[in-house]
Amino acid sequence: MQFYNGLSRTKEEFVSLRPGTVGMYTCGPTVYNYAHIGNFRAYTFEDILRRALELDGWKVKQVMNLTDVDDKTIRGSRESGKPLKEYTAPYIQAFFEDLKTLNVQPAAVYPAATDHIPEMQALIQRLFENGLAYVSQDGSVYFSVGKFPSYGKLAHLDRENLRVGSRVANDEYDKESYGDFALWKAWEECDGDVVWDSPWGKGRPGWHIECSAMSMKYLGESFDIHTGGIDNLFPHHENEIAQAEGATGKQFVRYWLHCAHLRVNGEKMSKSLGNFFTLRDLLQKGYTGREIRYVLINAHYRQPLNFTFDALAAARTSLARVDECVDALTSLAGTEKADDTLPEWAQTAQDAFLSAIRDDLNIPEAFAALFELVRGSNTAIKDGALQPSGAAAVLALFDRLDHVLGVVRFGRAQQEEEIPAEITALVEARAKARAEKNWAESDRLRDEIAARGYCVRDSKEGQKVKKA
Ligand code: AMP
Ligand code: ZN
Question: Is 296 close to ligand 1, i.e. is its CB under 6 Å away?
């Protein structure tokens, strides 16, 4: 497989450190709020990357961290008046629910920053031993950028011509003001009870040290792939390299892959701009996780993707085409065993799909190959040119390709379970009763729905109904 490596800024053949296995680290969510679908563009890209590697025969160990202590989570917990853990817990739970809604396969480990403070302190200690860390007047610990000559190799910083600021205490800053960055932040009044003891006094870790410490703990001091959204490249990933390589003297990561942003009207979707949708916003509007996944993955990951509701509507139409074709193949195949060989048009589609994903994860081309398979199947069925065993073989190919895409089979079961109109009417009446805080009526309607063989569950997105 070939990937565009952010270090060399070229496409490179992927060679793993250990034969057959891939260690992959993904910067996970900062759990101070619900993730928005821009964040999920990054997580679905990483899911596709991992699934594509698996289809190509690699065994992948993916680690995704949870940033549950940093400037933003501390601010959020303070503003809400809740202890940090209590404040972040519901967002962590929501994140896992959202991943499931989008059919993102779980990582092997989800280490939380607050569970890894000793590892972070040990790493900082190594940086002291190597002369790369110092304590500032307020008791915070900083990384000395000037003493680390390869600083800037990922972001391709022109060190000579940049005005180097002296020190940056914030987790996030831009290239123009880079300088020594915080490894450990001395306790301040506004940190409240978010505090740990350390050899340098009470405080808490900087954001960047979290990922260096947790990635090396679970994947070793050198590993294969590190990913994130493009905004993570600087300063976060640059600093991760400095901290890891400054401590170990070894190459930290071999391939850096970043996805471009999801945009709205040409601007990055972000919480600070207020131009964002959470996954829950879109589910509430009646779109499914399957349709949203389709939109998020159906662009090259290095190209910005503009989010529109038209794209969601188009996803619905495209998926219906795939569904119709898969249904027709299923009824033709019946219980027949699949042929060992594929019809020629299916073979061609398979080859096109595989070369698309091997070429730096070209998912739009992979989708084009999938639709060639749909077209070929429809024509062959119409012409009576496909036997049941051939249909079974083509279905097996749909499943194989869907290992990467995760949109063909996923989510269809829920969609197919039709809720009868009389039940829907009762559910609507119950929503009205609940809005009026008429709990007795709400309970009575729940019982009536149950008596008719359905169960209703209340969730943040409203009522969920299923056959009992
Ligand atoms: P955060 O929770 O802010 O640390 O971000 C989590 C992940 O989402 C990171 O990999 C970010 O780079 C990524 N991200 C944030 N905004 C967007 C966006 N609009 N499009 C794509 N990825 C994003
Ligand atoms: Zn990170």
Answer: no
The pTM score is: 0.88
Topology of the domain covering 268-414: Four Helix Bundle (Hemerythrin (Met), subunit A) (1.20.120)
DSSP 131-184: T-EEE-TTS-EEE-GGG-TTTTTTTT--TTTS---SEE-SS---GGG--EEEEE
Shortest-distance atom of ligand 1 to CA 41: 21
CA 355 to chain centre: 24
Question: For atom 7 of ligand 1, which residue has the closest CA?
Answer: 39
**pLDDT above 80 (res 177):** no
**CA 179, 183, 189: angle at the middle one, nearest 5?**
105
456 CB within 6 A, ligand 1? no
Q: Which CATH superfamily is domain 2-259 in?
A: HUPs (3.40.50.620)
| Mean of pLDDT values over 131-139 | 95
Residue extents of the structural domains in the chain: 2-259, 268-414, 419-467
- Quote the pLDDT of residue 413: 60
More confident residue, 166 or 149: 149
Q: Ligand 1: distance of its center to the CA of 25 in Å?
A: 15
User: What was the pLDDT predicted at 467?
Assistant: 74
**Ligand 1 mutation pick, 34, 37, 39, max ligand atoms within 8 A of CB:** 39
